[in-house]
Amino acid sequence: MSFIEFKEVDLTFQTKVQRIPIFKGLNLEIEKGEFITIAGPSGKGKSTLLNLVSGFVKPTGGEIWVDGKNLSKMNDTQVCDYRNKRIGYIFQTFNLIQQFNVRDNVAVPLLLSGMKKKQAYEKVEELLDKVGMTNRILEYPRTLSGGEQQRVAFARAIANNPDIILADEPTGNLDTKNGELIVNLLMEANKENGTTVLCVSHDERIIEKGQRTILIEEITCVE
Ligand SMILES: Nc1ncnc2c1ncn2[C@@H]1O[C@H](COP(=O)(O)OP(=O)(O)OP(=O)(O)O)[C@@H](O)[C@H]1O
Ligand SMILES: [Mg+2]
Fold this sequence. Notes:
Layout: E1 4-14, E2 19-30, E3 35-39, H1 46-54, E4 61-66, E5 69-70, H2 76-86, E6 87-90, H3 102-112, H4 117-130, H5 146-158, E7 164-168, H6 176-193, E8 196-200, H7 204-207, E9 212-215, H8 216-219
Parallel strand pairs: 3-8, 3-9, 6-7, 7-8
Antiparallel strand pairs: 1-2, 1-4, 4-5
The protein binds adenosine-5'-triphosphate and magnesium ion (MG).
């Protein structure tokens, strides 16, 4: 069995006004340590694919297995635990907590997994140093630029040395220099820690580093 496996996954969103079919009978196999890039047109399901792996979204049919466990069979507590311990998520819209400063944002996953505050704050400094953000440690997200928030979000995502990094256009808001910094950090996590990376991106610098690209148009059976 592969590290991440989608078996005949169907997904249809139902809003108040319409049904939005996204995936039908989707089969995917991803091995541990792979670096996968995901590309395709807007609105076709790239972010949704990451949300399925993280357990944020549940499929309407089929099964998703991660490291031998069926995500659909987990209860809410188990899904939260899985997400906190094993997944690092860099959202398209950062999702930093506005009421928390930079330090506390990055500390959240560490504290949730039981680390003591003093130790967590030390680790936060180390992480912020990697992304060049230590000088903004006591600022609040609203005072940061998009690219700066993206770098803080990256530090938060790698805080717990996750087995899987889900990154949604992580260089979308960054200039060349900071874009390269994030690409290199993703590569480092992948090469040195064997982290499996699923990264939505149209950025050539990322696509050329990835081992395989999933083109969402080709796997999406729903028109
Ligand atoms: N929770 C939800 N409820 C209803 N519809 C949703 C939900 N999440 C996503 N969708 C719809 O599913 C479709 C795919 O969304 P998704 O965010 O995965 O697209 P995407 O490929 O990441 O696009 P983009 O490149 O613009 O980020 C969109 O039409 C979106 O409106
Ligand atoms: Mg998206």
